[in-house]
Every structure is written in structure tokens, then in C-alpha cells.
Design brief:
By secondary structure, this protein is an alpha/beta fold. The protein has two domains: 59 residues, Orthogonal Bundle (DNA polymerase, domain 1); 275 residues, Aldolase class I (TIM Barrel, Alpha-Beta Barrel). The protein has twelve helices and 13 strands. Strands 3-4-5-6-9-10-11-12-13 form a nine-stranded mixed sheet, with helices on one face. A two-stranded parallel ribbon has the order 1-2. A hairpin with a 2-residue loop joins strand 5 and strand 6. The radius of gyration is 22 Å and the shape is elongated. It binds S-adenosyl-L-homocysteine. The site of S-adenosyl-L-homocysteine has 18 residues, from strand 10 and strand 12.
Length: 382
């Protein structure tokens, strides 16, 4: 067996031929090690060691794994890779928000966004390339190419952000020191509940106490309202839930979120009421994008309060983030204030979300890989 390509194993043909190890569940990792010929008695220990190196330390090469025998490291390095997706572009907003455009294969691109805030930092992760929902105010909805991301591609977004932010724990230091990324929101491109199994596997890895150890209370999954999967989400994933509500009447919501025709508001609210684990300390976040003259009246606000009755809830009013060619405008600030006042009086604190990263099109609903456009302009020779 050749023992080259270890120390600085460059991304190239050799690593393309290797299988990615990132994203395997613990059981899959153990099966992989068994297939490599690791002794049955050593399997659990090896699996734990590798898990720690990959997800706690952020190891990029098997050679680093110094508590594992050279022979095993070599077996792993010959067959598997810890390579991250290629970064096609990095952007930093004037408010510190960062956006990475990642290539997952020819023409397959997704975006990941990091939002630093006082005392915390949130990573906004994508679950699909593009989206099938076609919400009329959302930029991602206008993108054609769609496929589900694999668990590895979902987890790799967090690994890559930790690489970029130099956010892995120092060797020899316990897990106690503050991290740049403290919270995860599945609010990037795609509908996470349409990629349930892969998202669930990725979240289990992210929440695992021997790896990233990001608590499920700090992970929020946002859905446009795939009603049949909401209960499963609570039972099997157990993360915090956010609902993209955006309208209080079915005729308006049908236009904004076409999925509403399948799962109307009443069914959606019932699914929320029944969300496993719901409590005052574990509230559902309701997102509501403020669209001028569409859903932003005081009557709408009062109806929203009525709809939320009996559900432990937070409200996030999101000023609409415009994108080129969008058929909507953002409500003006007096209208947003009047809407927010109704919510405040009903007991919902600080309901307006501050837009972040607008200057780099990294704000909510603006994510869309521009690769298609760029390729077209390249063809035109511009
Ligand atoms: N499919 C999921 C997650 C992706 S969208 C969902 O629908 O929840 C993440 C959030 O951004 C959603 O609340 C979505 O409605 C909101 N959003 C989309 N486009 C927006 C825009 N242009 N301005 C403000 N918020 C937007």
C-alpha cells in the first residue's frame, strides 16, 4: 500500500476518488471502520476517537490523529477524505455578516451566512440547492436547479465556517471557551422538511456532545409549513421550530407561500399547537415578512394575535429584503411600527428583526447562487 498523500494531501484527483467521511452517522462510521478491517473490540474506541478529531478538533487530515495507530490512519487516508467544499467566493458585509458561496460539484452551489451579534454568533445553513416552494417574495424561489444536500454537505457548511473563522477549540483546551458560532438556523436555501432524513442526520451530528456539541435549543429549523413533517420534526429531531407564516388569511398566504394551498393556515396552526416539546421556555418563532400593502395592516396584526392564542410563541417581523426584480416592496417604517405595537401590546417583546448583511445580499431570502448568471455573462464574453 502506498503511504504518500498524507501530510498535505492536496485536493485533486486522489481526493476526488475518495469517499467523504464528513456526515456519516456514528453507526455508519463504525460500519466503515469494520469494513476497513478494524478489530471488533476496538471499533467503538476508534469510532469515538475519529468523531472527536473530526467534529471537535476539525481535523483536516487523518495524519493529525496522533492517538490512532499509523496503520489505521493510513487505511483511512487511502480510502476517505475530510475535504471541505470549495469556496467560490467570500463576502463580508459592513455589519460584519459573512457569506460564502460553496461549490459542491459542477454547477451545484449553495450559500452559507454567518451573523455575528453581541454575545453570540449564528450560522445560517442551507438544506437544498435552490428550493421547490416558489414563495413569491423569496429570491431562492426563482432559482432553477434543485437537489437535496447530503448530511455531509450540510455539516460541512459548519466545518467550513469554523475553518474560516478560526473557531475550532485549541488542542489541550477544554470545551469551555467562547465560540464564534453559538447558534445554528436552518434558514438558508431550501425547505429543510423536504429533506427530512438528511437534515435530521446532520443535526444529530451537530448536536452530538462529543463533537460540535451545539445544543438543540440553539438550533432552529425554519419551515414554510410542511404540516405532515412538523410532528416528526419535534419527535425525531427535537430542535426549535420557526414557521414562515407571512399572512393571516388563506387567500393572501396562497399567493405568498403557494404551499399554503396544500396545508392551509388552520392546519398549520394546529400542527404548531401539537408540536412536541412546546413550552413557554421552548416557543415557536413565527416569521412574518412585511410587504407593503399586502399583509401589513393593523387588522392583519390583530388577526395574527388571535391566531397565536394559546401557542407559546415569539414573533419575528422581517422587513422585506428586496432583490433585483422582486414584485414587492418593504412596508414603510410607520406601518411596521404600528403592526409591532399591536404585537407588543399583546405581550410579544421586540418583534422586529434587524436586517443583516443586506449590502452583500446575505439577508433573509436573498440567498441565490449567482453562478447561472455569471456563466451566461461569461458566454457573452462580458
Ligand atoms: N424554506 C424555509 C427556510 C428558508 S427561508 C422557510 O420557508 O422557512 C428563511 C426565511 O426567510 C423564511 O422565513 C422566509 O420566508 C424568509 N424570506 C424569504 N425571502 C425573504 C425576503 N426577500 N425578505 C425577507 N425575508 C425573506
Amino acid at each position: 500500500m502506498q503511504s504518500t498523500l498524507l501530510a498535505n494531501d492536496p485536493p485533486g484527483l486522489s481526493s476526488l476518488l475518495k469517499m467523504g467521511l464528513i456526515g456519516l452517522s456514528r453507526v455508519q462510521l463504525e460500519d466503515t471502520l469494520r469494513a476497513l478491517g478494524i478489530r471488533e473490540q476496538a471499533l467503538r474506541m476508534r469510532q469515538n476517537q475519529i468523531w472527536h478529531w473530526v467534529y471537535h478538533r476539525g481535523a483536516r487530515s487523518f495524519l493529525e490523529m496522533t492517538n490512532i495507530s499509523k496503520e489505521v490512519r493510513q487505511l483511512l487516508a487511502d480510502a476517505y477524505s475530510l475535504e471541505r467544499p470549495t469556496i467560490l467566493s467570500r463576502q463580508i458585509s459592513s455589519d460584519g455578516t459573512r457569506k460564502w458561496l460553496l461549490s459542491l460539484g459542477p454547477g451545484i452551489e449553495v450559500e452559507t451566512v454567518y451573523i455575528p451579534e453581541e454575545g453570540r454568533g449564528t450560522l445560517c445553513i442551507s438544506s437544498q440547492v435552490g428550493c421547490t416552494l416558489n414563495c413569491t417574495f423569496c429570491h431562492t424561489g426563482t432559482q432553477k436547479l434543485v437537489r437535496n444536500l447530503t448530511p455531509g454537505e450540510i455539516v460541512a457548511q459548519l466545518m467550513l465556517a469554523r475553518d474560516e473563522l478560526d473557531d475550532w477549540p485549541e488542542i489541550g483546551v477544554g470545551g469551555g471557551e467562547a465560540r464564534a458560532i453559538t447558534n445554528i438556523v436552518m434558514m438558508g436555501m431550501g425547505e429543510p422538511l423536504y429533506n427530512f432524513d438528511n437534515v435530521a442526520q446532520a443535526i444529530r451530528i451537530i448536536a452530538d456532545g462529543d463533537g460540535f456539541a451545539i445544543s438543540k435549543r440553539r438550533i432552529t429549523l425554519s419551515t414554510a409549513g410542511v404540516v405532515p413533517e412538523i410532528k416528526r420534526c419535534g419527535d425525531e429531531i427535537g430542535v426549535m421550530l420557526a414557521i414562515s407564516l407571512h399572512a393571516v388569511r388563506d387567500d393572501v398566504r396562497d399567493r405568498l407561500v403557494p404551499l399554503n394551498k396544500k396545508y392551509p393556515i388552520n392546519e398549520l396552526m394546529n400542527a404548531c399547537r401539537a408540536y412536541p416539546g412546546l413550552a413557554n421556555s421552548r416557543r415557536i418563532t413565527f416569521e412574518y415578512v412585511m410587504l407593503k400593502g399586502v399583509n401589513d395592516s393593523v387588522t392583519d396584526a390583530k388577526e395574527l394575535v388571535r391566531l397565536l392564542k394559546g401557542i407559546p410563541a415569539k414573533v419575528n417581523l422581517i422587513p422585506f429584503n428586496p432583490w433585483p426584480g422582486a414584485p414587492y416592496e418593504c412596508s414603510d417604517s410607520q406601518t411596521i411600527d404600528a403592526f409591532a405595537t399591536v404585537l407588543l401590546r399583546a405581550g410579544y417583546a421586540s418583534p422586529v428583526r434587524k436586517p443583516r448583511g443586506r449590502d452583500i445580499l446575505a439577508a433573509c431570502g436573498q440567498l441565490k447562487s449567482t453562478s447561472e448568471k455569471q456563466r451566461a455573462s461569461q458566454r457573452r464574453g462580458v
